Every structure is written in C-alpha cells, then in structure tokens.
Amino acid sequence: MAAEVGGTDNEKRESVVSIGSTVAYSSTDDTCLINFEQNGDRREKSLSDSFVVAKCRSKADPEGGETETDSKLCGWLVKYSSIGFVKTSKLHWFIFGDDTCKLYYYRQPQDLLPLGEIDIKHATLFFDASNREKPGSFEIRSDGKVWHLEAQNQQCMTLWLEQLQRKRRLYNKRRTVISEKITWTHRNKQKGSGLTGQEQGGSAQGAEDPLNATASSSTDRADSILQDDAQEITSSSKTGIWSLVNLRKEIRNAVSDIRMQISPTQEKLSPPHSPCVEDAKEEWTILTDDMDSNNMPPVFAAVQSPPPLPPNSSAALAKSGQKTGGKFASTFKFLKAKSRTPSDSKEGGLKKQNSRSGSLSCAKCKQLEDEKFSAQEELKDVEEELQANREIVRLLQKELDVIRVSLETRLESEGKSNEEMDLMLKQRDKHVVELQHSMATLQEEKSLLAQQSKFVENNLTTFRDQVSMLQEMLSAKDETIVQLTHKIFEFESNTHDRGDDGERQHLAPLMPSGIVPDAKELETLKDTVGAYQLQNKFLTKEITELNKLRKYDEQREKEMLMNYANLEALYYQTRSKYLFLLNERHEPVRGDESNKTEEAVTQLLQEALESETEGGADHSRHHFMSSYSMEYDCYGFLVYAKEEETDDILVAKANKLEWQSHQLANRIKDDTEATSRQIKWENFMVGQSGKPLQRSPELKALVRMGVPHAFKEHIWKGCINLHVGATRDKLGPQYYKKDLGERIKNSKFNPAVKQIDLDLLRTLPNNRHFDSMDSDGIPKLRRVLLSYSVHNPLIGYCQGLNRLVAIALLFLSEEDAFWCLEAIIEHLMPKDYYTKTLASAQADQRVLKELVAEKLPKLYAHFEQYDVDLSLYTFNWFLTIFVDNVRPETFLCVWDTLLYEGSKVLFRFALAFLKYAEEEILSFKEAHQIYRFMRALGERITNVKKITHIAFHELNPFPMRAITSKRLHHLLQVREELKELDAIRQDFQSSHSQHSLEGYASEDDLDDVKEDDGFLS
Amino acid sequence: MAGRGGAQRPNGATQGKICQFKLVLLGESAVGKSSLVLRFVKGQFHEYQESTIGAAFLTQTVCLDDTTVKFEIWDTAGQERYHSLAPMYYRGAQAAIVVYDITSQDTFGRAKTWVKELQRQASPNIVIALAGNKADLANKRMVEYEEAQAYAEENSLLFMETSAKTAMNVNDIFLAIAKKLPKSDAGNANQQRQQGVRLNNEQTQPSESGCCK
Questions:
Q1: pLDDT higher for B124 or A349?
Q2: Which end of chain A has fewer CB atoms at under 10 Å, N or C?
C-alpha cells in the first residue's frame, strides 16, 4: 500500500486528455491521481454522448486544475481510520460530487455504491507540515468527525486541498445565489435530450449563467491573489539569498585579509611551516572558490572536500576541491532556488559577529607584527651604516696607492735637488704621519663599528626569535579562528534545530581538521521550513475561505429570516381575518347589521380569491410556495387540469389550496427522505458516469425508490439498451434516422397514418409538449409512431402506444423513445399485447383478477357482490402503463421499475392501488359508487412512497413463475374465445357486406395485408 | 347522489321512480363519443379529448316528468383493435349510442356494422340510437342526413345529428333514449338492473336475459 502511494520522486509530468465516448478507467493505474471531467463540454454537446476527460497524472500542475473551472475531481487516496484501537489504512477511489458538495469514496472506480461520504460543505481542511513521514497526508474535519487522508505526495495533497477549497467555495456561493432564485430540488443542471430536459435546461441556463460568471470571476480573483503571493514569496526569498551572499563575501574578505597578513612573513622567512597552518589555508581556498562559483554555503563544499593532505599535494587538492565544488553546484542547483527563511539572514548576522570577534583577537598579533617590523628596519639601518664605513676604507686605500706612486717619482727627482728633496721629504713625512693618524682613527672607528655591528646582529637574532615565536602564536590563533568558525556553523544549525519542534538534531562532534557540516540535515531543515511556509500559507487561505463561507451562510440566514418573517406576517394576517370571520358568524344577526356582516364576509372572500394572484406577483420571494402555483409541473403537465365538478369558484379554490397544502405537508414530511434518496442516487450516478448500465441488486433497490428527474434519461436509456442493445447494434446506427424514414416514404398506404394523426393531439392534451400541433413533442411523436408502424407492421399502431411514446419523449431523445417503444412491446410486455386482438392484454386482466382473489380476498368478494368488473379500469392501466388518469409522479414510478424489472410490476402496482384504497372501496355499498371511485382511483394515489412500499413489500411473495403460468393459461382461453367471437363476426359481416352500399376496408383488414407484406420482406 | 334509491326516501313528496340504465357508446375512432359524453355529463368540450383506451365510465342523471333516469355510461375505445373488448361493455346494456362523424362516410359504414353487431349480440330489447356527430362541420358533410335517417328508420333506431362542440342535440338524444327506455317502478328498476347484470355475467347469450320488460 505504502509503495503504491509513495511512488517515485522523479516521475514524469504527464497529462493525458482523451476525447471520446468512453472513459477508460484503469484501476491498476496507480499513478492516476486526479481525473478531470469537463462538464462544460458535456452540457454543450448534450445530444451527443461525447465528453472530455482530462486525466492529470502524477504531479498534476495546479494551474491545470485552475483553468478547468468545471472539472470533476477524483482520484486515489489512502484513508486512515481507526475502529477502537485498531488502526487501518486503505486505498480508496475518491470522487467529488459537485451537486452535493460531498466527497464520496469507493473501493474501485467501477463500484456502484460508495463506501461512504464526506461532507465538504462545512468542512475545514488541514494538513500538518511537521508530519514528514507522510508528506501527502491531510485532514478533513466535518460534522464533528476527522477524516485522515493521504495523497501520493505533497503536490497532490496541495492540489486536492486547493480543489476542495475551490469547490466548497463555489458550492456555497451557488447555494446562496440559488436560494434567491429557485429551490434546489428543482434545479436541474444537466440538459437532457428529452422534452422536459430541454425545457428545464433552457430555463435553468439563464439562472445559471450569471452565477457561473460570478463564480469564475471570483476564482480568477483568488488565482491572481495566489499568484501575487507566490511572487512576493519568491522575491523575498531572493533578497534572502542576496543578503546571504553579501555576508559570505564579508566573511571571505575577512579571511583573505588574515591570509594576506600571514603570507608575506611566510614568504620572507620561509622556515618549515607547520602543516596545520598550511591545511587551514588550503581549506579556505577551497571554500572561497566554492563560494565564488556557486554562492553555496560553505557547508556543502566542505562536505565534498577531502580530509587534510600533506602540504605537497595541496595544489592538487585545491584543484579537485574546485572541481567537486562545481559538480556539487550543478547537483544542488535547485536548492539555490529554494526559498530562504528570514532566519537564514539571522544566521548570517550571527556569522558576521563571530567573524568580527575573530579579527579582534588578531589585534594583538598585529602589534607583535609591528614590533617585528620596526626591528627589521633598525637592522637595515645598521647594515647600511656598515656598508658606508667599508666604502670609506676602500677610498682611503686608493688614496694611499696614489701617494705611493707620487713618492716614487719624488725619489727619482731627489737626485736633482736634495734640498728640494729634503723639503719634499719633510712634507711627505708630515703627510704620512697625518695619514697614519687618520688611519689609526679610522681603524679605531672600524672596530667600533664592528662592535656595533656585532651588537646589532645580536639584536637581530633576538628579534628573529621573537618573530618565530609570534609566528607560532599566530598559527595557534589561526587554529582557534578555524575552530571558532566551525563552532559558528554548529551554532547556526543548532539554532535552526531549536526552531524545529521535536526534531532537534545532535550537534556533530567537533572535527579538529576542518568543517564537515551535515548537509543532509540542513537540507531536511530547509525542507521543513518550506513545508511550514506552505502550511502557513494554506492555513491563512483556509481561514479566509472559511470566513467567506460564513459570510455566505449569514447572507442565506438573513434571507431565510426575511422569508420567515414575511410568511409569518402573512399567516397572522390570514389568521386575524379568519378570527374576524368567525366572530361575524358567531354574533347574532341583528336586522340591518346583517348586510354589513355579509359585506365584510364577501370582502374577505374577495381578498382570499385575490391572494393567489398576489402570491404570483411575489414569485421570486415565495419561491417555495410559488413553485406549486405554477401552471405546469416539471413534466409539462397542467397542474390543475382535472378540476372535478367545479360548481363554485370558492370551492375550487379551497380544493386547490387544500391540495397545495397537502403537497407542501408531504414535501416537508418527506424532505429528509427525499434528500437521502437524492444522495443515494447521486452517489450511484457519480460512480456510474459513462459506463453502460448493469443489473445489480443496488440498482434494483434504487430504481424502486424512483429515479430522480435528472437521472431519468440515463437510467431509462440504460434499461432500454439492456433489452434492445443487441437489436440496435445489428440494425446499425442509421436504422431509425435513415432506413425507417425511407421505408415510411416508400410505403404507399399505411393504414396506421390516419389513426396516428387523429391521435396526435389526443395523446396528452394536458401536457404542454403535446397540446397543439406546434408543440415540440408532436412532430417527434408522429415520427416515432410512424417509424414503429413500418418497423413492426404486425402491430402497426395501437391506441395507447401514443401515450407510451409521449411519456418516453418527455425524457428521451426521439431515437431513444423509438427504442423504448420497441423494448416495451418486444421485450418487457408479453407477446401479443398490442396486436390486433390484444389477446395478452385481455389475458392479463384475468390474471389480475385471480391475483386479486389471492391477495385481496375481501375486496374480491366485494367486487363480486356488486358486480364490478375490475378490468374496466385496470385494462387501461396495463395497456398504457398507468398513463391513464394517474398522476405523473405515480406512473413514472411504475415506468422506472417496469423498464428495469419487466411487466410483473404492472400487477404489483395494480394490486397496490387496490390495496391502498381497499378500506374505502369496502365502505361503498353501491355499485355506482364503486364505479365512480374506481374511475378516480388513479388520481387519488398521491403517496407514491406508500404505493411503492405496498407494491414491493406488502404484496410479497410475488413469484414470477405463478404469473407466467397464469398468463399462459388465460391467454389460451382468451384466444379460444376470440376465435369464437371472430367466427360470429365473420358470419354477420359476410351477410352485412351484401347489404352494404359500398365495400369498405377496415383498418385491421389493411393491417392484415400489411402483415403479409411484412412477413414477405 | 341517489343513495339507495327513491323507495327508501323518507320524503314522499318527491317520490318518483328512479331508473338506472346502462348505456354504451360505440363507433369509429375519433367520431366524438367521449366528447358527447363529456358534453352530456359535464357540459364541457375539449377540442382534443384524450383518446379513450379500453373504456371510460361516467354517470349522469336526467329527469323525465316524475322519473329520475340515471345513466351509467360506458364510453368505449373506437379503434378497431379494441373491438374485441366491446362485448365486455355492451353486454347487458339497455341502451347504446352508435356514433358516426358526418364528415366521414367510413365512420357511417362502421356505425352500421356496430348496429348490426348490437342487434345480434346485445340484449334483444336494447335501445339503439344513431348519432351523426360533428354537425357543426356541416360544410364538410359527407353523410347526408336523409341517408342516415333512412337507415335509422329501416333499423328502427333513434336518430339525431349532434354536435358536442355546440351542444346541439346532445341532451336531446339522451333524453330521447331515456324516454324510449321501458320504465317500471323504482324498486323494480334497481332489481332489474342487478338481475340484468348478473344474468349477463353468468351467460353471454342475450336471448335468455328477457327481464327488461
């Protein structure tokens, strides 16, 4: 189960849009998560079966969901439930019912009845971001219950939630609007192909269109808000990244500063440096490189950087570090795009502070450095002085050489003059002495300088020692800096964890060699932050949504209160009038005052009569009442067509009002039941969508409850196809529209035409679809009946079939109505029901009589006593499937079950009618009273629920076998009798024809001719 | 309504005979059988009356001098196909109105067949009236009055041209039938009816139900 739900992360995005008449439901396809069925298209192409199904697989992008404003929401979800202490989780198929605003779940998409339902109308939605094991799980809280559901992944979950929110909003909005206009029971969204469907669709469209418009505009607005939000978030996350980058730059600069300070000394002194320092330096290079190329936090790079290596391979290390960093960048590129929380920038701030404290500790070191510098300068000065002294010595020696040369030349010239020579010698000696003196001083000076130099040298060595000491100190400081930075990172992650409730991570033990932070941890933390953001966003939206819903509810409540107040006012008005009337009646009449009283009474009567028209004017407000004061019902029948012997307007009015109040009372009483029935049907239809109808006990039970107006077409069509589907396929799709049309044209004389034309307007004169030649149903009725007469010449046309077709046309298309007739005549009714002699129909009356004797013996005896022939009334019921002085609600119930179950239900209902009225019939002690009553029996049956209960429960057991055998028995008898009758008729007809002035062919004679033709062809 | 019959009425002043008669309407489809009945019983007329399937049952009372005549009217379906059901309805009927449409010769021919069948199959003393309906459509007339009149006389039928639409002769034809029907005293009438019906139920041979004198 979990594997099925979990799926893989990198599933391809794929959306399939299939257009066709069938929907492929693949239960094995576990990636199929959300299906969209466009109702909009369906409504447009109401006559064709085609509709569009858009399946969004896997990560269905939310935009797709938004654009399809009228889509069906369905998909697989895991439902968690706990019964006592046992907790279970099951994968169910969930479908959202737009009409009920409920989420239904099924074991399989093909299932007919749902396992359960969740009311979304007033539900609140929630998901827990901290639940990281099940990222797709969410909760629906409705009616005091909590439903734990889980989608395949987070995207799906958010999509579900968004869709549910949207649907809930739309539904509530619609409800608010509708409550102003029409009652919900009369709302018919689907445009059927039957006559009633067309009409309803037409009238409903006008009301719905502005509704849709407002609804869509509201969703648009919501979308735009959503988009704005998203933009805001992305922009804010961008700034977050920027600040982070800046901070990193700062840190990097600070670090490189330190390095710069270190490096000159290293270069100059170049003593064997400690590996620790070297490594640290190398580490930083990698980090800064990474930061340059990726803007990645150092942690990621550090994860990839190898452990410390010996110094000689440090260059290679730097290179590989760069490489891996690059790779890393591409792998985690998406992480860059991920939004950052403000807490990130806080971390940055922290980092900065820490780096500052690091540089503070360096000030000492700097001082030492300065000292070192000054010492070096001093050293330099001394050396320079030394050099100068040497230069002087050299110059002096040169001078000495020159003097020696001049001395030699003087010795040469001594011979010339001694005196001169002596003088010269004296002078020279003097000079020598002077020179020697100066030399001695210089020597002295030199030794002094040498001494000095020696001292300086000594001084230098001490300084050098000092420098090396400082160097060592510096490296130690470096190390502490590194450690501190490391600590900072840990501190960061630590603070992060603190933000996460319950999910505190352990501080990784300090690594002496470098920074290897837990990347995964950080990643998960970031994910969590994202999830929380999402949750936060969602919850905010949820709150606004709920607020909106509350507003709608308030609006509705206000309207209802208004309505209630109005009605109450009306009620008190009427009551005061009534009391006044009573008062007038009670008071003794005193001479002249009698006139006055009468006047008052007549005035009251007038008012009472006029009240109806007032109500009509107030149509929109009193929709509840006015829906019953309409002229036509939802099937197009005149509501007050049958006004029995109306002697007085007042009595008629009273009758009408009584009926109305009866209806209202019934409706209020049955309201809960009706809605539960409606819901059951909707559940069924939701699961049904697009599949051919199949027999099932559930469907049977549902049909017996009565098929709701909106689903009649679908169900009837399905039932009809169960019988005639094969024939239809065999004859091809053109059979009705083309083949039969041609056959009608080609047939020279069709005796049925005359009777059909005579009956067109005499079919349902009380129904507005059939009340004049211009009515929409009449041409269809004619075509169907004519087509059938050529399709089945053996039957041709039988009075009564027109009613069957007319009723079928109320819900079905022309072609389907034709096939409905075929199904009734050929499959549902026994053979020979509508043929020339109506033999089976007559036989059925005898079967019914026997059944009455069996099931209602008292009534049977009563009928016998007063010589009442039941078949006078029941024959029509059977032949027209109760479309004979029976209320539409009642006979439609018979139709529903007949189309599904077959002609046995005719007996059930006929007996139920009798049983329903048994007491009353038994109370009549005169034949004509019984006749009278029986004539109106069909119209009296208003409690459809009770009738169906009697028909399908109280009359049981009702074995088909018994009926079949009885039918057979009586059919043989009837045939025998008919033969006799025929013989008698033949006899006198032959004698009569001699007398007749002109021969005339009866319709059935012609039928006989036709029959032969039919057999031949 | 009439309660259990005039004989039991305590008020002697209004005591008159109450007779109940079963009357059946026959005729081709759409000639106006149901319309005639509706006009007679309710005084209403619908241009397009729902076609009758099987049969319809109505009652109406007319007063003749001191006799109250109560008609049980069986309005049958006209289509040939329902022909086989007709015996069920005309069985035991004391009166019948065979209706044809004056704008259609076919329906007149059909009426003749019905008369023939009634004469052979129904009670021997059945009062048969021939009604040429739709007299308001005289401009489309296809069956001459004289022709029908002659046929009626030949077969000793009551004859009138009627119009359910204008109510012409509608009440008259029912009254004429009421007059022609044999009336015994009230108690007998009730008895008669019941007897008649029972007999008819027991045996279909009309010749044996000779109680309607």
A1: B124
A2: C
